[in-house]
Amino acid sequence: MFLTRALEKILSDKEIKKAHHSQLKKACEVALENIKKDSLNEKSSENDRSSALPMPKQAGFVDADRYFTPFELACQSKSPRIVNLTLDFLQKLIAYGHMTGNTPDSTSPGKRLIDRIVETVCGCFQGPQTDEGVQLQIIKALLTIVTSNTCEIHEGTVLHTVRTCYNIYLASKNLVNQTTAKATLTQMLNVIFTRMESQAETEGEQTAADLKQSESSSTTTEQCEEPGGDDTTSEQNQSTISETQSTSNMSMSETQSIGDQTTPSTQSTVDQSTDENQSNAAHMSSENQSINTVSDGGDSSEGEARAVLDDIIDQVTGIHQSAVLEMTSEQVPNSLAQVPNSVLDVPPEALRARANTGESSEPPSKPASRSTSTLAVNKLVDEEQTEGGDMGHGAFSHILQKDAFLVFRSLCKLSMKPLTDGPPDPKSHELRSKVLSLELLLSILQNAGPVFRTNDMFINAIKQYLCVALSKNGVSSVVEVFELSLAIFLTLLASFKQHLKMQIEVFFKEIFLYILETPSSSFDHKWMVIQALTRICADAQCVVDIYVNYDCDLSLANLFERLVSDLSKIAQGRQSLALGVTPTQEQSMRVKGLECLVSILKCMVEWSKDLYVNPHSQSNLGADSKPSQESDSDSGKGTLDSYGSVNSLESNSSNHTLSVSVQPQDSPEQYEVLKQQKEIMEHGIELFNKKPRRGVQYLQDQGMLGTSPDDIAELFHNDDRLDKTMIGDFIGDNDKFNKEIMYAYVDQLNFAEMNFVSALRRFLEGFRLPGEAQKIDRLMEKFASRFCECNTKLGIFASADAAYVLAYSIIILTTDLHSYQIKEKNRMTKEQYIKMNRGINDSKDLPEEYLSAIYDEIAQNEIKMKAVGVQKNVTTGRDITNDKQRRMLYNAEMEHMATAAKVLMESVSHVESNFMSAKHQEHVRPMFKMAWTPFLAAFSIGLQDCDNPQIASLCLDGIRCAIRISCIFHMELERDAYVQALARFTLLTAASPITDMRSKNIETIKTLISVAHTDGNYLGKSWLEILRCISQLELAQLIGTSSKSIRHAPSHRREKSNGSTPHPFESFDHDAIARGGFGSRTLDKFQETMGETSSQSVVVAVDRIFTGSVKLDGDAIVEFVKALCAVSVEELSNHSRPRMFSLTKIVEISYYNMGRIRLQWSRIWQYLGDHFNKVGCNPIEDMAFFAIDSLRQLSMKFIEKGEFANFRFQKDFLRPFEHIMKRNRSPTIRDMVVRCVAQMVNSQAANIKSGWKNIFSVFHLAASDQDEGIVELAFQTTGKIISSVFEKHFLAVMDSFQDAVKCLSEFACNAAFPDTSMEAIRLIRNCAKYVAEKPQMFREHSGDDLNVPESDRVWVKGWFPVLFELSCIINRCKLDVRTRGLTVMFEIMKTYGESFEAHWWRDLFRIVFRIFDNMKLPESQNEDEYYVQPEGKPSARAQWKSEWMTTTCNHALYAIIDVFTQFYDVLHGLLLDELYQQLIWCVQQDNEQLARSGTNCLENLVISNGNKFTSAAWDSTCTCMLDIFKNTIPHKLLVWKPDDGMSSVEDVIGGMESVTMDTAHDPSRLQRADSNHSVNSVVSVDSRDHKFPRTKVLTDQKLFQCLLIKCVVQLELIQTIDNIVFFPTTSRKEDAENLAAAQSSGQQPDLERVYQREDQGMYHQLSAAQLLQLVECLLQSHTFAKDFNSNHEQRNMLWKAGFVMNSRKGFKGKAKPNLLKQETQSLACLFRILFRMYNDEDRRDAWPDVENKLISVCHSSLEYFLSLQSDSHREAWSNIIILLVTRLLKMSDDRFRVHASNYYQLMCDTMNYDLKHELRAVLRKFFIHCGLKFGITHPDTRTS
Asked: What is the spatial distance between Cα 1314 and Cα 1015, in angstroms, rounded to a whole number?
């Protein structure tokens, strides 16, 4: 058999014969004999075996274990051949399972045989002198042991195997051995950690299966099955232990399962107070002894090493090494998956007891497997004690986890070994050891599984060991070490960042970014850092996480902001590079910086890609938006030369099902608030570091800091960003509040159980002691008090005074021992220090040992402030003059940085901080908002300064990504800034000449076009810059295609207009280019560059922008059109070379987007329509023609599509025709507009709906034109619409009905074409017919105004427009036209008025009364010209006004009364008062005819309708007449003086408006003046001419004219009252009868017959009160006339001044002015009313008042009559006296006696005058009657 042959081969070696190998020889012989005996015993039962290597019958074949002693002795021999041979045999025995080593070791209690085997194999390596073959065999044997499935090693044994291979790598001189050792180490670590992960996965699956099975089992079952399987269950036959194991195992399984599936917080906690001093480093002392190695391992050595490893793995597992390297949990043998878990959970005491008795955890007969034995567990306990107390019970769920932990911790500690002083030697074993450990750590981290990534022990190991090691190695000057450290950091950042939040901050802030910023670091270091940053910046999750976790954390550094700022400086070329850097290297750094910035932006784009909608992947009709599938080349392609196989970090840990803790909610709003608070906090800290009080106050004002001393002190403790010097000065100040803060600061420190020096260190680490002694004194005093308070049981200090003095002395000692200003020989000695402190403890000494220990501690370790990070060195790149100086400075900085980083890393190793894994897309918004300016600066400078195509490409990519981000989040300011920058670098809109254009500018143009194509939906106002560039690009293309003719351009200069500014493309002028003096090569290059702008790709891309506009959404197309219109305006406004490029594109995109919905088109047309308005009014007719024709074509397209009812889009797009017609005065253009509209009407009348409004508006504007062709065409088309379209499509035109009528009205008002005017009025009459015939259609059509009730629609939309426009015609046109309009308007009212509602009439009469409004308007500024011009002729305005009043107003007034009378029943309640007001206005005018018409109309109105009047109506009527009486009394006649400055026409018109005065009288009878009669007073021409100046005469004449009209109105109104009350002609007939009776001296007129005649009037309709009101008015008028007639002096003055004007007949009166007719007729009317009332039985109640009034008036009248001096005046009163006496004679006897007694004396006095016969006759009758009634005479005595 194989074992026998192995022993025999050892015995056959010649070295065995030597004496010192006798023990080995004997052992081999004994073993052979035993083997033969065993073979004979088994021969009868076993078949013969082959001499070849047999496979074991079972996995636990243990025969070889019994014969290990010969192999052990052979390995201990000094013979390389024997050792080599033995190791080879051992390797084979283990590989094939003949030797498992799972039995206890009889020589070492508590250990297993496999541990002894490993020690034996490892002991074969004796250092560098070990035979190279032996070294290789050791490596093979150890790898076989580690990878074998039949034996297992743990804890210290595993460490021993790793340490031995490690030492072989360092010590071996053979390159093959070195490579093999390194590969073996990698394979070992891979197996160790893979087994750990596989075991956890298998256990988790088994636990889940058991839990599922237990849930489905019967509820009566009290015990669950053991999760270890059948084999495990059969072994649990020891009751107590079995139950304990079962329960413990179940608990652990559940715990582990939950931990694997949820969070590790449910796992067993780990004691984190690891004692690093108790480690197994002592067992690895030999690792520091090594020999030189070959640094550039060749292919041959690597190939041999690979062959060796393949051979070993083939022997062990039967599979190739590569498969093992990639082994997963599924490939692990079954024996590994069946490891019982119960053993792990047995209490250590029980395990230890079992181990001491030699009891195994499983039967000896069980085949060997990878189960954990009792010895192994006991070993675990021992290792826990030897390795330190950092691992408590339950820290690991399996022994395999502890194996991995120990290996990992050892490697971390190895990597922390310091290098030798001086320049590092690449071949030194210290450096090689460090590099190897880092490489192995990197391998472990890169292949880390879920257990390693989540187990608390491994996480704490990373924090406490690996991160601390990296803080040292990360500043190494050795490039390889630094690069490895970077690679490890990248791996940590990718897979462990959720656990290392604080550590990552230290790495970034204190190491990597500092290396980038400092000028002393080498280019290689900077290059590797930026290489690493390239990978970081290419990972979107990582970039966003950095911002969320650091920039939005109040207490952490702004890593993202600082990173972007540093990268921006690098990209701009402003970074601090080392001395001697070549331009190529500098440019490479710039490129890398740009790559990082672009990668960050691409990450942002990738992160927010779901918010982006590609305009070319969605419909513009409102379909659901989908993310863009278009590739924009937005993903970064950064690489790292080594230690990385992927482009970006793999954040697998972020997506793994296992998580560290419950993640807080990812709320962007919350983080944004935190960021704002952080900015406030940082500003406050900045203020504090300058002026502490100001900073504290600011933070308190912002609510970030409390007002109590405790709050401020807590801030000083917790925030390391505060300046320590400022803190010291602030708390040391003597101010009360400062002292309170200092007390709170010290009281918050806990010095309990701390020695004095440690407490003082703790106290002084938070601030720098101020320099003022008093401040130090206060601080030390409080410290001493606090220390004694916390350590009352210490018993060293008698009082706090002693502690105070000691603290002071320690500070002095620290300064003395560590100040560089004090020389070494002058430093304080220990004896001096002890002497200095004598008697300080209450006059006693402190123990010398105590003071000595303090001195020693201070001497060894200076008291320093707490490390808060690396302080930036003030040294700049300019201060470094040579490379040696740079290296010295860099080494010093790196040492300081390493120390600070190590301290910080250790301080945060136990800090738990939640790392937020960002998920929300909104985080990109604040990120970009914060960093967009550095991005823009970097890209702008890159494009501006460099012509490097790579830099230009990166800058353009960055700008494109930045635009995408700003677009996605609608950040208008940022978007506009980037688009403007991009547009500026195209040189198309810049002030630079076009000849400066380079290839990068062409690429910029292409990028701009690409942005327009892909981000069009978000560009908003930025479209303006883009389209402006495209406009200029078209100009550049013209240059490119025509530049060949530049060589032959004429050399003459063109004249430039003064004041004109050169265009940015001034050089597009061929002459301008020719003047530039270009050389041939320059011109060729210019032509080539310009030719690129005309390339097919550019032209097609530009066209895609316009054709792709159909894909823009609703908002984007509006902004696009708005910008395009603005650019078109700029093109057209160029007076020298206007262009129509954009105008043409506007028309094109309008056709492209014709399919858009109306809602979008309405918004688009707001800008398109306005633009067509502007272009259509352009003074250049060709452009206006193009615009109008384009507008016509578009309009026809829109009209062809039709329009539903109640839509108004046609109205919108036809409005430009209206605007152009209104603003453009060019006859050609106006004619074009009319023809375009006429064509639409003729061809598309059936499809026009809301557009009719604009059509009629255009024709309305054309109607006022003076061009006959325009007016004729417009009127013909309008007539066709009225006659034809109204008949067929009246419903479609109904909304525009009033516009049609308004249009006809305008045609009627065009005075240049009277025939058209009359025809237009006829068409309006036809429109009224349509309204009358289709009222129901109007009612059913709501139209625009939905508030109009259905019943009123026919009025509002039909009748009212017709009547209103007729009123406008009346007000605006000449006499013949307005007369026709007036006739038609009242004809319509009379014809169709029956259908009018009551409130319609109110609106209608407002229209009618507008006829009089023209006369109510103020006249011109100089009213003197209205009446008489200097030549004495009336002005045109006065003539027109007079004509208007005499004709139109007069006609309208009578027509109004007719209509009112016709429809009185409807109108009286609505319009009577308004009608009276209008009549009052008429009689107040200075037009005699209108005034007379007013009173006549009043009379007609009352007489015609009085019988229908209500009492209220009569009140209004009486009030009207009273108002007329009051306002027309010419009071000015009594007060006028020739020099009266107030005698102006304004006073008369403003106060009491105009009436006519009558001086002509007919003494024979009283009659009413008709409309052709005017009374006047005449003054001689001489008296007027020589007494008054001309201007005075003109003014007076105007005044006199007004007074005359007032007098006429008074007379007319008196007659009106008489006619109303007693019916017309009644009074005249009575006077005639009375006179005839008096003349004939016959019988008196029959009074009854007179009363009957009077009753025909309105007397009975009037109440007594109303009649008495009229009496009062008549009495006032009579009194005024009487007063005037009695004032002879005033009359004479007026006569001399020229009062009255000439009468209509030209007759000049010779008599002085008088008011005889007013005086007599008012009194006569008064008498008739009073006498009628006096004899009216129905008014008996009023008789007393009437009688009194009658007596009073009669008495005063007779007295006045007797006072008259003029015979003619008395003659005028004859009819009054006859009337009076006649009525007295008709009275009853009683009444007669009453009245006669009052008048008798006066009657007698009348006889003294020479009276007319008629008067004397009537007086005779009076006296006779008196005699009869008073009994003076008897009737029989009466004489004839």
From this structure: 62
